[in-house]
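Case study 2.
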Amino acid sequence: MADRHEPNHQMYAVRNTFCFSETSFAALEQIMYKTEVPEDSHVFWEGDPDDKLYYVMEGQVKLIKHNSEGKEYVFSQYQNGDFLGQFDPYAHSVHSSSAKTVVDSVLGVIQKKDLEVLLWQHGDLAIEFMKWMGLAHRLTQTKLRDLMLYGKQGALCSTLIRLANTFGRETDQGIIISDKITNTDLADYIGAARESVNRMLGELRKQQAISFENGHIVITNLDYLQSICHCEKCPKEICRI
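Prediction:
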């Protein structure tokens, strides 16, 4: 059962400092209610009415798309402090993809009709919301660029860099990706077969660009990965999963 969320400014996450001021985020909290979503459950399905915006208080949510053969492609993965959802300019829009929890998650839900009233009332929030929409579109554009311009190998290298920016931890050996990412996960991120990912990872390991430690990927030569995907050195707010 969802319940109205009481404001808690400790929840103000670093991911939102790029777009929302603390005052604006507090206003969003006032119209937000909390819901708990178990692991591997859909937050919404492709084709559902697009009438809500979601804020990840705790957990992880992935945005997925299926092709005509049923292959799942993970377009984005949202962490604590992320907003997700569409904000189309026309009425009766529907979601163009599905969202599913990776782990047990707690989400803040904002009704679009409540948000529209708030944006009318607060000009600063409206401007900051436009910045968030621009950031969301930029994220989409850079991922499409990776897939379309530099092939599967470029997309894989870009995905590894994004994972490092999202989950990476500096060690003496290199940047270790703290989340255990399987080859199947990587295949879903770039829309490739797992066998192709196995082969490309083997080549990257041979080039000493990556290694593995207790099931975790370690990036040992970031410059090499950046050269393969023609990295444009985007800010980490954009270069992330």
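The mean pLDDT is 86.
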